[in-house]
Predict the 3D structure of the following.
Amino acid sequence: MPLSRIRDTLAAFIQSEGHRVEVSVADGSEALAEVVFRARGQMFSVTVAEIDAAHFSISTAYEVPDWVRDRSGPSDALDDIAREYPGTRFSLAHDGTIFVATLDYAGDVEGFTEHFWQIIGRLRDAGNTAVERMVDRSESKAAADKFIRQFLRGQR
Amino acid sequence: MNDSEDYLAPIEAAIEDEGLLFARDDDDEALRITFKSEGDRYFVVGYRDDPNFVMIGSGWALPTDADFERALEIANTLNVRKKFVKSAIWEEERDVLFTVELCVNDGLEVRPNFGRILDVLRDTATEFFGELRA
């Protein structure tokens, strides 16, 4: 199936599910297509390339909470979550102010649309868990844990 | 608000904020919006004779083999436990309806909370059917 038809099929499916869709073609060529939509307040991007039209990459970006930036917490949390969500890739971007979560699907567009919302849900779970884990690793959480341990030992 | 005012217009804007498509279906009595999110259907309805009342909801078919008493029990449990959402078995026991009913001076009051309302409607339906299948 040509890339343009895959792209249009995917866009029509997402639209039929109630979501506004933007379709773009990278560099004006037909080699790479991107379909962008929003769900539950989060922007998602699906890319598919002419060279491998049975491979879809779904990505979404999250803001790294500003009070945990400039520490090892974000990258450590992303390493942990990548292990807990096999197949999901994470990368920090824009000087560590955001991270991008990406999940790949191999198969035809019909199979992709059949499982579409489960895939989106899994990616969203991974991203949300990563944000929670970053916050859990913050110094304020560590300080709270320290206080609770001291409190339980009667040291406070 | 006067009678001619389209007081659901801010809710249309809220739906657009969510990146969703919608359709209008108004008549002499009611203002209605229907839309889908992730393939699930939702509605918003307001009545011209009570412009402060807005209902946002979703309706689902009960499985044909569902135990009606169990469905009622789950709906009641959710009514006790969940914020905002009213769950009801509806239309000759064939459907379950989840609604958020609000009293507003202006539809603008709904707009910043619309995502939260959709989340709680979605979560309540997921919990209801999860419990029903358990």
